[in-house]
Write a structure and sequence with these properties.
- Keywords: Disulfide bond, Glycoprotein, Membrane, Receptor, Transmembrane, Transmembrane helix.
- It comes from Haliaeetus albicilla (White-tailed sea-eagle).
- Its main location: membrane.
- By secondary structure, the chain is α/β, with parallel strands linked by helices.
- It contains seven helices and seven strands.
- The protein is 37% helix and 16% strand.
- A five-stranded parallel sheet has the order 4-3-5-6-7, sandwiched between helices. Strands 1-2 form a two-stranded parallel sheet.
- Helix 1 crosses helix 2 and helix 3 packs across helix 4.
- The longest helix is centred in the N-terminal third of the chain and has 17 residues.
- The two termini are 25 Å apart.
Length: 201
Amino acid sequence: IPQISYASTAPELSDPGRYEYFSRVVPPDSYQAQAMVDVVRALGWSYVSTLASEGNYGESGVEAFVQSSREAGGLCIAQSIKIPREPRPGEFAKVIRRLMETSTARGVVLFANEDDIRRVLEAAALANLSGHFSWVGSDSWGAKMAPVQGLEAAARGAITILPKRASVPGFDEYFTSRSLENNRRNLWFHEFWEDDFNCRL
């Protein structure tokens, strides 16, 4: 079954041998990792730490960043820290303490989910380190307010990456005008309709 995704960014999905019928409308994480390397180099940083949420998104993203930084040269990774999938109490304070072990690496590249980003910022604020770190965040942070709300001082100066977005003229009008009468070719539309309108057809 052909699939088109609007949000799947894992690099391995680019392998046509394994995912012959998969396509996407967003670039793989390897592109944003390269953009993050470009940002770090443009800022003149040569020594950064990386922070990743455990799992495919975070670990693959950091791996792509490290690989791109090696290819570009002139960038050293102070340490790579992984946030466990189910962090224990005090885990984020521990992350901040580990980052402080290489305190001269004030730039931190984040490939983490929204909740982990928020908790890292909270831990930095609690440790009285607001403003100490310069964050470069991936698209999971992007332009979202939720990770930084109430933690603006800890996030101040962060640079976040977000794939270019554009509106397709006429798409919203077309999509919202679909109904059971004019959309018979989509086999799953009636299931969507039932779920969206909480009804049985």
